[in-house]
Write a structure and sequence with these properties.
Protein name: Hydroxyphenylacetyl-CoA thioesterase PaaI
Shape: globular
InterPro entries: Acyl-CoA_thioesterase_PaaI (IPR052723), HotDog_dom_sf (IPR029069), PaaD (IPR011973), PAAI_dom (IPR003736), Thioestr_dom (IPR006683)
Number of domains: 1
CATH class: Alpha Beta
Domain Thioesterase: 50-124
Largest sheet: 6 strands, antiparallel
Number of helices: 3
Strand order of the largest sheet: 1-2-4-5-6-3
Radius of gyration: 15 Å
EC number: 3.1.2.-
Structural class: alpha+beta
Number of strands: 6
CATH superfamily: Hotdog Thioesterase
Organism: Acidimangrovimonas pyrenivorans
CATH architecture: Roll
Length: 145
């Protein structure tokens, strides 16, 4: 199995039960070893009292991209710590795209950076996630020697 196939099978297994991302209106656009892209259109129910996308929804979009990136090796991985900086508002009707890339993966720990961009390519938020591998796999696979 190639690393790309492993990443896709892991993502498919996670996506099947990811009610939260689906409920928010996200799509999983790309996945590969240590990387993932999610997106969502900012709808009326995503808006806060200022008429812009609520920061919690932007965080969730980035967190989902992070989750698919760090789970792309067919090992169960959870978040250990995440932080986000908001740079510009998400506007009603625009598509926000969260692109996660692996920065470091050593032992059971990983670091991933996620950039959330708006429709015009501007940076909306920068997210950094620390991951921790736990016991288990997304699908049955023989251990490599």
């Amino acid at each position: 199995m190639t690393p790309e196939e492993r990443a896709r099978r892991s993502a498919d297994a996670m996506w099947a039960d990811d009610a939260a991302s689906k409920w928010l209106g996200m799509t999983l656009d790309e996945v590969g070893p240590g990387r993932a892209v999610t997106s969502m259109v900012v709808a009326k129910h995503h808006l806060n009292g200022h008429g812009i996308c609520h920061g919690g929804f932007i965080f969730t979009l980035a967190d989902s991209a992070f989750a698919f990136a760090c789970n792309s090796y067919n090992q169960l991985v959870v978040a250990q710590h995440n932080s986000i900086s908001y740079l510009s508002p998400g506007q009603p009707g625009e598509t926000l795209v969260a692109t996660a890339v692996e920065v470091s993966r050593s032992g059971r720990s990983g670091i991933y950076d996620v950039t959330v961009t708006g429709a015009d390519g501007r940076q909306v938020a920068l997210f950094r996630g620390a991951s921790r591998q736990v016991k288990g796999q997304h699908f049955e696979e023989a251990e490599s020697a």
